[in-house]
């Protein structure tokens, strides 16, 4: 029974996130799909930025590399 509660809670969390994203999309005047893609792009950018933002690497350079890598990732 405990496994089903975990699955149900995960699904509820997903639905709450989708609702929050739908409300954000409505406020911004974009579609849910656009908002979802924007969110995915932002998450991937942050992931890449963490990878490239290292001691000795200029912050602007790390940002530029993360943006470029994100664009390449989503152009496929």
What can you see in these coordinates?
Helices cover 86% and strands 0% of the residues. By secondary structure, it is mainly α. It is extended, with a radius of gyration of 17 Å. It starts with a helix and ends with a helix.
Write the layout of secondary structure elements.
Elements: H1 2-28, H2 32-52, H3 59-75
Q: What does this entry show, briefly?
A:
It is built from three helices and no strands. By secondary structure, the chain is mostly helical.
Q: What gap, in angstroms, lies between the N and C termini? A: 42 Å
Average predicted confidence as pLDDT: 92
Poorly predicted runs are: none
SSE pattern? HHH
The largest sheet, given as strand count, sense and whether it forms a barrel, is: none
| Content of β-strand | under 5%
Q: Quick one: how many beta strands?
A: 0
CA radius of gyration is 17 Å
Please tell me what the overall shape is. extended
Percentage of residues in helical conformation: over 70%
Q: Count of helical segments?
A: 3
Structural class: mainly alpha
What attributes characterize this protein structure?
76 residues, mainly alpha, 0% strand
């Amino acid at each position: 029974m405990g496994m089903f509660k975990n699955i149900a809670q995960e699904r509820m969390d997903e639905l709450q996130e989708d609702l929050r994203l739908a409300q954000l999309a409505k406020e911004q005047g974009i579609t849910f799909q656009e908002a979802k893609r924007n969110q995915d792009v932002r998450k991937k950018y942050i992931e890449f930025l963490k990878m490239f933002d290292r001691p000795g690497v200029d912050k602007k350079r790390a940002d530029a590399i993360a943006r470029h890598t994100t664009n390449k990732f989503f152009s496929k």
